From TrEMBL:
Keywords on record: Coiled coil
Top-level taxon of origin: Bacteria
Name by which UniProt lists this protein: DUF1351 domain-containing protein
Positions in coiled-coil regions: 94-128, 179-308
Amino acid sequence: MKNNLLQIETFDVNLLPELQGLKERQFQIVRENPFVEINDNKSYEEAKKVRTVLVTARTDIQNQDKLIASKIKKFREAVARVGEELISITKPHEDKQQSEVKRWEEIKEQEKQEKIRLEEERKVKIKDAIDLIYKKELQKIETLLFETIDTLKIDWEQNLFKTNLSQFEEFELDFTEKLILLKNQFASKEQVLREKEEQRLESEFLKAEREKIRQELESLAFKKARHEEELQAKEQEAKKIREAEEERLRQERQEIENEKMRLANIEADRIAKAEALRKELLEAEQAAKEKAETEARAKEEVERLQVLKPEKEKIIDYLESIKGSITLPLIQDESLKKNLQEQLIRLMKLFQTQFQ
């Protein structure tokens, strides 16, 4: 019974009925249709026949292959259906068991994640505690004064340096590093504060020295000022004596100048009076001469006017005769006409005045 089972992996495909005799037939076709070299039309036609036989042999095999493939496909489909039937027997049990395994794995994953979360919280809590201590002590350093340096040292000796490291578990090294960092920062801060304190003491010393020098300078200045006041008083006294002597000499010079001025004024007054008398005589002489010349010219003018009187009377009579006979031009503008009349009257009066 077992020997009758089909062993696919050892099955010889040459045993398929569809392939029986084909290999011998292909060799026979090759023998019966040798290669034809074309030299002319006859050989050309013979070569085409051989080619057609060979092509037909190939296509027959290919068609047979497609037939076998179709049968194998149907066989594969039948195998697949049998496989599905067989799988359907165990698949519901597989799915149920898979769900159970997945449920359990999810529970375990949740437990794993919870452990990870708790572990992370533990680590964060320890790190936060270390950071809190570090920031608190760092704040003390930042606000440290020179006067509180020893106080902070004592505080650290009694508290910070006695911290229980076991509470930090695997992060003891982190706390130790923070502690070293704090010590270094404290040392730097202490150095800065001590340098500032030294500078402050030096500044106060220099300030005291400057104050001492200032007081000494003030004392010297006071003595100098008092000495200068004494010298100034002596100079003022000497100045008063000198000014009094200068005033006496000035007054004497002024009296001499006044006397010179008085004498000069007397001489000038005498000269001025003599000059005035001379000018008065000259003016009187000139006035008499001008009076005589004026009287002579007046006499000559009277005589001339007497000679011209008949001629003037003729001119006045002429003017009077033509005054009423002058014909004015035709002027429409009344203001212009009036102005012309006024100018003619003024001109006539002017002529009459000149010849009277």
